[in-house]
Amino acid sequence: MMSVVHRLTAGWLVDHLSFINQCGYEICDSSAYPGGVTLNTSVTTAGDCYATSASAATSSLRDDPIPGPGDVIKTEGKPAKLRYVFREEFFDISKPHIAVAPEEQLWKGCPEVGLTEIKVNSDGEEHQEGTKSGIGDSVASARKKRKRKCVFNQGELDALEYHSKVRKLIWEGTLHLVQEGLRSGFLHRATAELSCRKNVIPGLVGCGLAELCEMAKQFPAVNESDHQAVHALDDETSIPEQDLLSCVTENNSNCAKIVVLMGQKYLVPPKSSFLLSDISCLQPLLNYKKKYDVIVIDPPWENKSVKRSNRYSHLSSWQIKQIPVSALAAPNCLVVTWVTNRQKHIRFVKDELYPHWSVKTLAEWHWVKITRAGEFVLPLDSLHKKPYEVLVLGRVQGDIKEALRKSEDVLPIPDHKLIVSIPCSLHSHKPPLTAVLAEFIKPDVECLELFARNLQPGWTSWGNEVLKFQHVDYFTLLQNEN
Q1: Contacts 24+ apart (CB under 8 A), 230-236
Q2: Is the pLDDT of residue 44 over 90?
Q3: What is the pLDDT confidence band of residue 311, given thresholds at 50, 70 and 90?
Q4: What's the pLDDT tens digit per position in 224-234?
Q5: How many CB atoms lie within 10 A of CB 69?
Q6: Contact of 114 with 167, CB cutoff 8 Å
Q7: Spacing of C-alpha 203 from chain mean position
Q8: In angstroms, rounded to a whole number, what is the distance separating the alpha carbons of residues 219 and 149?
Q9: Concatenated DSSP letters for 237-287?
Q10: DSSP state, 20?
Q11: How far is the C-alpha of 56 from the C-alpha of 253, rounded, in Å?
């Protein structure tokens, strides 16, 4: 399956970079070369697409392979000239962000650590040499940053308690998946020593998508009766920015398209649709009249680092509850919410948000971030940030008769699974869930991602930065000469 390198009982080892490049970023007409003349339009289509079999880029939740970067696609005896691939340097995580002692490395075995030991070690006067608790380094570095004059606050105690419950599952499951990755050659233990190249990633153009969505609120109201709900990139050669922000845009073809917005070029993969809008302008998504079998949500949770960085605006719990999930969800819809490690947010999702949406919590999974050498990107017991994030999975509970009628379609969701991957160095570029969720839903279902920052074949994506990681600067252009 597309992005899954290994599947074990514990979960999946996922290749995020490969997934992006299998999405089919081929521009099918050489006249669409980005260095050429661009007409004064908001959307530049790529001309006639090559003919591909219907299975090549239909629902992304199927096992059918999508052409990869090494394939030469031909149309009428002539190869496609342009192919974009995501830049590898964004996944070149060869060393942990904070090093751990050799005996604490993943493949050395799992040190047993209790909650009491973590608290004792963190409150102690000195970090003793040779500590094998797995938290010594993180405690020492935490102490350098700030000297604690008080005990842990309640939030920190809750986080420690949660961590003590899940750490063994995470350690052992990750170890098994990493061992498989090392055996198959997908991961390389020597990578950290061998990789001495320094990737200089140039600053990308500030695209201002969120600011554009804010400005769109000032546009005059559109009369719904004479305004179309969808713009198809197949049919349109020009879409004014106002329309791009006020209806769902679809790419129904088997090749990628280039959308030009405020002078910036964005790649739209095959069989994908998106709405670029602010949370206060969700009506076009409801007008789209689709009901979704899978809804993935990555809310901009409020936290101290978000406030400090000003990277993106956060939403309050009250605002997140206003998202009309019930209006968007098909019966028995699977809802997956990305949550930070703050227990306050995890409790909110399970105790308030899901009940508000009539969603029953089924499971908690974890995304574990590793290096190319198979180490945790941060010490597992770091007191600051953890090398994992939480996903809360639930299912919409609708009308009882409807649910019973549809129950034969519903596959059980396991309590705990790990998604282990090398993370993207771009902030908040989450790993794809397409292949891992495919085991638990039927093929050809409708999928929606809310607060998305990138697009996927077979999915509808919404957010005020929905095209962010589709910017051509994140990709390298390959050309087939013959």
Answers
A1: 230/273, 230/288, 233/43, 233/45, 233/257, 233/259, 233/268, 234/45, 236/43, 236/45
A2: no
A3: very low
A4: 544 567 888 86
A5: 16
A6: no
A7: 22
A8: 53
A9: S---HHHHTTSEEEE-SSS-EEEEETTEEEEE-TTEEEEE--GGG-HHHHH
A10: H
A11: 11
Residue 183 CB coordination number (10 Å): 10
**What does the pLDDT average to over 292-299?**
96
Axis crossing angle, helix 115-123 with helix 136-145, rounded to the nearest 10:
40
What's at 110, amino acid-wise? C
pLDDT on residue 213: 76
The answer to whether 458 touches 271, Cβ cutoff 8 Å, is yes
Tell me the average pLDDT of the chain: 76
Sign of CA dihedral 326, 327, 331, 336: negative
How many other CB atoms are found less than 10 A from the CB of residue 91?
20
In the chain, count of helices (H) and strands (E)?
A: 15, 20
**Is there a contact between 111 and 447 (Cβ–Cβ < 8 Å)?**
no
Angle value at C-alpha 396, between 393 and 397, nearest 5 degrees:
130
Q: Mean pLDDT lowest for which of 29-38, 83-92, 125-134, 336-345?
A: 125-134
Q: What is the pLDDT of residue 48?
A: 36
User: 82-101: per-residue pLDDT in tens?
Assistant: 899 999 999 998 888 877 76
- Tokens found for residue 187: 């991961």
Range 327-344 average pLDDT: 94
Extract the tokens encoding 331: 């019966």
Summarize pLDDT for 420-440 with one digit per residue, the tens: 999 999 888 999 999 999 989
Q: Are 12 and 417 in contact (CB under 8 A)?
A: yes
Ramachandran angles phi, psi of 217, nearest 5°? -65, -20
DSSP state of 235: T
Q: Are 177 and 5 in contact (CB under 8 A)?
A: no
Number of Cβ within 10 Å of residue 406's Cβ equals: 14
Burial class of 244 by CB neighbour count within 10 A (0 to 12, 13 to 18, 19+): buried
Helix (H), strand (E) at residue 395: strand 388-396
- The answer on pLDDT for 382 being more than 90 is no
Mean per-residue pLDDT for 310-333? 85
**Does the pLDDT of residue 124 top 70, yes or no?**
no
The token pair at 128 is 């003793």
Q: How far is CA 401 from CA 292, 333, 391, 407, 447, in A?
A: 19, 15, 29, 10, 24
Q: Model confidence over 187-218: pLDDT tens digits?
A: 998 754 444 444 445 555 556 787 777 776 66
Structure tokens at 307: 């406030």
The SS3 call for residue 4 is strand
Cα-only R_g, the chain? 23
* CB 42, CB 268: distance < 8 Å: no
